[in-house]
Write a sequence for this structure.
């Protein structure tokens, strides 16, 4: 035992003598706690003394300053206090190494010297800034919580038991010994043990994985390893970071130095030795497979010393930032230090990583603070560290500073805003966060309908371009067009973009002289849509908004051209960047050296530099001006008091031609009292500069005209402008690629905007393309669940021409109210297929949707809309290819005919791309050619496209010029088979007005289609029409076909024709046309023009009727009904069973023939009692042939009725639900004066004053033709309340009311009309008014005189009565309100057209604040007035009884 103890002592003595470090010896019988206490007592916890003579001087930061390390530990009393270290004068202190005796751990030379003095453990203790956790790992979670019963699967165990029993029984039956049973038992025991072991292992793995997953969802994870890494990495990285901050911030401070200060310098900057810390990480496993989302709790509290050991306290350096502000000039000046210390930061940051399958795997990093971060600091602007006063002690100042910081950072990276880092781009070296990676070419054509925001002066609009916000810097601007609300710019501008994840804001401004420009409105374009459109969108119609309301429309084309990048082949080889003469120049001016020095002297001894007086090194206040092709692109700030200015400025510019680009830099000296002088100049071509940098690897150039040199760099990014042409002659109109059929079915649960007035909304739907109204439905009155079942056809010109379906509430007097809207995107309807030379547009299957309505701000709105939509393409011909001709006759014919035509149109426009057929020989006519959609091309015998064989297509109308009788503001509207204008031009002012605008409309049926071109004033009233021109469409198409060349769609050039305006003396209009057939289209019978028109019924005779009277006969009369509404009643023919009717003829308008049910009922007239039904039956009108009179025998339930039927297709005026159009016995657009409105009366919502039956066509308030349309087709009776010339005062029919013979004269003479004047278009268009029509469409004068005994049932208070007059349920008049009286006297008179079947209702109501109350209703039957032919003057009782009486007068007016 003694020998063993002696041996231990000898070993310990030997170790202590040979070791250079302290050796601890223990009693073997001591406990571990006693051994630890012994070590703590014998160990020196102070920092080891570092003798600076053993260390070489090391460089702080990035090596720009030499700082000597000192080791006076006795002066350190407060943890983190600073040493007074010596350093080079005027050299800033960068990093914690400037305040510590320890070297930078990244300095290999200093660290190698340190290892010679201390052991590795001692060095780790010196630099240990964070401690490892001393805690032990907890025991296994699964082992503590789960029992054995949770392991294994019961049927596995049961199967093993039963198998062991079975084999034991089998061996026993075979007579084997018990030893064999032991073998079987051993085998199954081994199996069971192995099975249960695997089951438990799998169960543990699954449970642990699930517990870990739940922990990710429900709790934060500690990242001690990351904090350990940050603690050690921070000591190496912080000095480098501090030096870079000083380098960058110093130039920024110099640039933004106020004029009253001489200079601002960042003299000290360090973030200390304590690294930022990650307190916890919350991971969200439920994100997409390529997304990693985490919430990081970050903190940077360098002054928290509670978690530091004594050694860490001794080595700790606090953050410190010293800003020296120099006041005064030259020798008369002093520097004042501004100290910022005791920094603290804490926040919760969401980090989202977007991964992709290329290096560096992480593509994007999105950063966002989930809540406002906390921060604190001490700011001492005066007195420095010793006598400084923290200005945060001033009440309110700290809160103000924090609010300003939050206001700056909030839009950048406070949730929901994110700050995105393009990691992949930055790692590849070709993408910078502030660098452009492509050029956006935006061509601004024109604007329409701009509404000024300034009441003074004229509107002189121009456009400025901004990214994401109109308050961001302006990228470019157009020129200003003077005095125009419809300017035409035709300018192309190139905007530099870093990516397409931006919003392009186009701000329209009104230029003013002598005062600030005024904003007109802003149009936004999401550039992300360019990626879906192959980096190009043509034919844009951008709506300009001001305060959420549209104030105009912009027309533009946008193309994005990305910078060229290296391409990687499949074999792994990388192709170099394709060079281009156009591209993006990133030019940087870094610094200068030795400017203003090294003068050369003349005999006089005055120092000169290039002939200029030399400047002292402390008096050079330099700045630089950079020019590209003579235009100033950059002017740096003044760098004061240094011959080595550092600007670090970059700018980027698009260079359309690199070979013609010249660069120039002028270095100027700022003179306080005098002109600035040039102290150096550099110039070069762009090609020469690029060659020198790439080949010679030299980016320093000598200055001419002075001394010194300048550090410049540049980066050239080629941008090929493939397929781009700056030719703007083609204008903004694009040929249509197809047409969209939108069937507006119904709406449900709409918002009631008339609830306060006691009514309901009167909804209709209008289809908008930008600000252009392309079609609309009828208004359904007082209905929140309307059903329209109406189709609208809209020509489409590009994939980006999305439509907007707006629901509006019709109002007669005020503007229509908005009910909701939804978007119809063309990408859902159109399929785009790109080939080598062609782009083919085809339609997806028809869609049927029920969508929820939105507000104009795209927020949910009450109600939903049901519609159907389908796209039909236009004719697309293959690109013309040049083929070798082998036939000598063909070669001779080609040589004699002149040069061969080539097709050079842009592939983005179908009809310009594909506007010719391949040349064919006579032998090829036998083969049917097909266009790109696979449809057979209809060819005439002379090898022309047979346009007349295409019944449907898009008719394009170009309005060139209008000659007016006098100077005025006017616009032009195009109406084709519609009461609504499908195109409206901009408003122009003058007598000879040049428009040069194009619009189009869809031709459903070429044989029946008619067009009206109307010129009207800019005023939206009943007398706005100036003149018009009307024609059939088929003669126009015939003329276009004759003018076209073989294999061409229409003529190669527009044939401008001048037409005389009707109802406008000396007025003319110049037009040109183009027709584009639509293929793969079959017109639905419900959409056909033949489905709408007028039905004329003549009752001839009846036979086989039942006798119901005692005499065995009957007194029959017939009642005709359409959809259950009575439209006509014959006279009574007494005592007949086979009556022969006399002059029983009526005509009724039918809006939809396919859904109209004509029914006849035969009654027996009885003088006393009710009339008895003796026969009834339906009448088939759906299969009637147009314009032909057909006699039919209608089989009744008992008997036969002989009728003569005639169906005349025509465009009916706007049908209003609730208006008794079916009660009319005349044509809907007819009447004694040719005014459609006079049919119903002189008041009301639609038929007000005889002007509104076709009203409210454009934009919810435009009257289609002032005082009503007498005829749009065969003749026009009166426009704007003015009659035509004498001899045209008879009745006129509607646009499609006549048989083909009515237009036969104009059709035959269309060629001459297209060359001269369409005067013949009004020949033979009038039909005299029959006496029968007058008798059954009389004018009634109604006077609402007074009422008495007005009393609301169960109500004792006096009422505020007024009377509302309606015909067949449609309101036409409302009297004034007489307050608080039971005997109101109105004495109001008006006239209205009535029919024999009309029923006039007088509804008396009580005016209340919220909702009017019903008092009573009285009825006047017009049929009795017509038969008696006597005026009515009497009292009508109100129903319910006891509510009063109303005094009414009614008499017919003789015309």
């Amino acid at each position: 035992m003694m020998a063993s103890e002696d041996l231990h002592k000898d070993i310990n003595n030997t170790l202590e003598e040979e070791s250079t470090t302290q050796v601890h010896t223990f009693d073997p019988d001591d406990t571990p706690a006693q051994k630890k206490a012994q070590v703590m007592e014998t160990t020196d916890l102070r920092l080891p003394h570092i003798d600076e003579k053993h260390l070489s001087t090391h460089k702080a930061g990035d090596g720009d300053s030499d700082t000597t390390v000192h080791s006076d530990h006795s002066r350190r009393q407060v943890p983190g206090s600073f040493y007074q270290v010596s350093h080079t004068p005027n050299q800033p202190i960068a990093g914690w190494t400037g305040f510590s005796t320890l070297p930078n751990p990244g300095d290999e030379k200093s660290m190698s010297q340190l290892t010679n003095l201390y052991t590795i453990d001692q060095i780790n203790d010196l630099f240990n800034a964070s401690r490892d956790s001393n805690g032990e790992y907890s025991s296994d979670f699964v082992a503590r919580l789960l029992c054995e019963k949770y392991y294994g699967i019961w049927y596995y165990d049961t199967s093993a038991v039963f198998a062991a029993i079975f084999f034991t029984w089998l061996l026993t039956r075979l007579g084997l010994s018990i030893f064999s049973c032991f073998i079987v038992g051993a085998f199954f025991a081994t199996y069971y043990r192995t099975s249960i072991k695997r089951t438990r292992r799998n169960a543990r793995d699954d449970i642990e994985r699930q517990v870990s997953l739940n922990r990710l969802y429900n709790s934060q994870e500690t990242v001690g390893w990351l904090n350990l890494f940050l603690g050690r990495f921070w000591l190496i990285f912080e000095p480098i970071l501090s030096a870079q901050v000083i380098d960058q911030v110093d130039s920024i401070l110099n640039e933004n130095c106020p004029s009253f200060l001489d200079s601002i310098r960042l003299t000290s900057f360090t973030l200390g030795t304590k690294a930022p810390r990650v307190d916890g990480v919350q991971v969200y496993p439920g994100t997409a497979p390529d997304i990693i989302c985490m919430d990081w709790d970050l903190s940077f509290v360098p002054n928290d010393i509670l978690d530091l050991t004594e050694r860490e306290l001794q080595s700790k350096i606090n953050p410190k930032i010293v800003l020296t502000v120099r006041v005064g000039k030259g020798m008369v000046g002093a520097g004042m230090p501004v100290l910022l210390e005791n920094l603290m930061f804490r926040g919760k940051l969401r980090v989202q990583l977007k991964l992709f399958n290329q290096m560096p795997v992480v593509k994007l990093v999105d950063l966002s603070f989930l809540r406002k971060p906390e921060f604190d600091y001490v700011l001492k602007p005066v007195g420095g560290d010793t006598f400084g006063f923290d200005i945060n002690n001033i009440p309110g100042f700290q809160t103000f500073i924090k609010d300003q910081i939050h206001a700056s950072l909030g839009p950048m990276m406070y949730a929901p805003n994110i700050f995105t880092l393009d990691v992949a781009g930055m790692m590849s070296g070709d993408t910078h966060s502030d660098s452009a990676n492509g050029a956006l070419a935006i061509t601004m054509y024109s604007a329409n309908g701009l509404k000024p925001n300034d009441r003074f002066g004229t509107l002189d609009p121009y456009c400025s371009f901004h990214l994401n916000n109109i308050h961001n810097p302006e990228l470019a601007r157009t020129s200003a067009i003077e005095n125009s609300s419809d300017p035409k710019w035709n300018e192309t501008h190139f905007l530099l973009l870093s990516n397409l994840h931006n919003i392009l804001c186009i701000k329209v401004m009104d230029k003013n002289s002598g005062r600030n420009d005024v904003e007109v409105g802003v149009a936004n374009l999401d550039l992300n849509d360019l990626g879906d459109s192959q980096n190009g969108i043509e034919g844009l119609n951008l709506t300009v908004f001001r305060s959420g309301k549209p104030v105009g429309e912009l027309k533009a084309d946008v193309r994005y051209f990305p910078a060229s990048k290296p391409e990687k082949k499949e074999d792994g080889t990388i192709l170099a960047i394709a060079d281009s003469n156009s591209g993006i120049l990133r030019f940087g001016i870094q610094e200068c050296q030795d400017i203003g020095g090294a003068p050369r002297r003349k005999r006089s001894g005055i120092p000169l530099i290039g002939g200029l007086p030399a400047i002292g090194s402390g008096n050079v206040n330099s700045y630089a001006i950079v020019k590209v092709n003579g235009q100033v692109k950059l002017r740096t700030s003044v760098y004061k008091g240094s011959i080595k200015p550092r600007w670090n400025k970059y700018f980027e510019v698009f260079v359309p031609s690199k070979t013609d680009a010249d660069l120039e830099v002028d270095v100027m000296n700022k003179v306080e009292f005098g002109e600035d002088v040039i102290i150096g100049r550099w110039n070069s071509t762009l090609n020469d500069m690029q060659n020198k940098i790439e080949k010679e690897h030299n980016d320093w150039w000598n200055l001419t005209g002075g001394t010194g040199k300048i550090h410049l760099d540049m980066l050239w990014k080629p941008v090929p402008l493939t397929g781009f042409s700056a030719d703007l002659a083609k204008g903004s109109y694009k040929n249509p690629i197809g047409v969209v059929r939108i069937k507006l079915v119904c709406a449900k649960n709409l918002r009631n905007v008339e609830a306060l007035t006691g009514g309901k909304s009167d909804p209709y739907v209008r289809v908008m393309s930008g600000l252009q109204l392309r079609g609309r439905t009828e208004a359904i009155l007082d209905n929140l669940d309307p059903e329209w079942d109406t189709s609208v056809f809209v020509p489409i010109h590009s994939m980006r021409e999305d439509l907007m379906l707006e629901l509006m509430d019709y109002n007669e007097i005020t503007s229509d109210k908005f009910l909701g809207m939804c978007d119809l995107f063309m990408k859902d309807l159109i399929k785009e297929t790109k080939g080598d030379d062609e782009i083919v547009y085809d339609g997806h299957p028809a869609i049927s949707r029920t969508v929820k309505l939105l507000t104009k701000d795209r927020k949910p709105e009450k109600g939903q809309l049901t519609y159907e939509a389908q796209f039909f393409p236009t004719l697309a011909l293959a690109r013309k290819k040049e083929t070798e001709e082998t036939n000598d006759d063909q070669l001779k014919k080609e040589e004699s005919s002149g040069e061969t035509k080539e097709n050079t149109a842009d592939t983005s426009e179908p009809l310009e791309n594909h506007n010719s057929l391949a040349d064919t020989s006579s032998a090829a006519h036998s083969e049917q050619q097909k266009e790109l959609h696979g449809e057979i091309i209809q060819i005439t015998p002379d090898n022309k496209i047979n346009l007349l064989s295409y019944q449907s297509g898009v008719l394009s109308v170009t309005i060139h010029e209008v000659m007016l009788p006098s100077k005025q503001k006017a616009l032009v509207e195009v109406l084709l088979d519609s009461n609504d204008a499908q195109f409206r031009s901009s408003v122009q002012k003058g007598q000879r007005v040049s428009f040069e605008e194009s619009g189009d409309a869809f031709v459903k049926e070429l044989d029946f289609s008619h067009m009206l071109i109307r010129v009207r004033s800019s005023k939206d009233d009943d007398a706005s029409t100036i003149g018009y021109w009307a024609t059939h469409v088929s003669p126009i198409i015939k003329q276009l076909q004759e003018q076209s060349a073989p294999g061409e769609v229409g003529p190669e050039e527009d044939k401008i024709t001048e037409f005389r305006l009707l109802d406008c003396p000396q007025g003319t209009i110049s037009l040109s046309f183009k027709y584009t057939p639509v293929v793969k289209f079959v017109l639905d019978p419900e959409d056909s023009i033949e489905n709408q028109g007028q039905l004329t019924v003549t009752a001839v005779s009846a036979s086989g009727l039942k006798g119901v009277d005692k005499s065995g006969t009957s007194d029959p009369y017939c009642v005709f009904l359409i959809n259950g509404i009575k439209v006509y009643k014959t006279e009574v023919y007494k005592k007949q069973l086979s009556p022969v009717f006399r002059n029983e003829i009526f005509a009724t308008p039918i809006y939809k023939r396919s859904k109209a049910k004509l029914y006849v009922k035969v009654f027996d007239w009885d003088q006393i009692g009710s009339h008895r039904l003796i026969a009834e039956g339906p009448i088939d009108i759906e299969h009637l042939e147009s314009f032909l009179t057909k006699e039919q025998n209608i089989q009744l339930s008992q008997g036969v009725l002989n009728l003569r039927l005639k169906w005349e297709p025509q465009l009916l005026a706007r049908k209003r639900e609730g208006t008794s159009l079916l009660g009319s016995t005349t044509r809907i657009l007819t009447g004694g004066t040719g005014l459609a409105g006079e049919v119903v009366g002189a008041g009301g919502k639609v038929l007000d004053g005889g002007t509104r039956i076709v009203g409210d066509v454009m934009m919810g308030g435009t009257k289609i033709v002032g005082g009503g349309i007498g005829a749009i087709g065969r003749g026009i009776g009166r426009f704007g309340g003015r009659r035509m010339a004498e001899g045209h005062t008879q009745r006129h029919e509607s646009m499609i009311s006549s048989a083909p013979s009515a237009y036969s004269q104009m059709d035959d003479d269309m060629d001459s009309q297209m060359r001269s004047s369409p005067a013949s278009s009004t020949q033979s268009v009038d039909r005299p008014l029959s006496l029968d029509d007058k008798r059954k469409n009389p004018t009634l004068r109604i006077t609402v005189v007074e009422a008495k005994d007005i009393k609301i049932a169960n109500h004792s208070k006096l009422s505020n009565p007024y009377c509302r007059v309606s015909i067949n349920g449609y309101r036409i008049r409302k009297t004034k309100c007489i307050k608080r009286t039971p005997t109101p006297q109105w004495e109001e008179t008006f006239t209205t057209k009535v029919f024999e079947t009309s029923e006039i209702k007088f509804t008396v109501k009580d005016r209340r604040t919220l909702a009017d109350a019903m008092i009573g209703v009285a009825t006047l039957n017009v049929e009795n007035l017509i038969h008696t032919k006597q005026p009515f003057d009497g009292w009508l009782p109100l129903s319910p009884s006891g509510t009063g009486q109303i005094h009414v007068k009614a008499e017919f007016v003789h015309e």
Q: What stands out?
A: The longest strand covers residues 332-355.
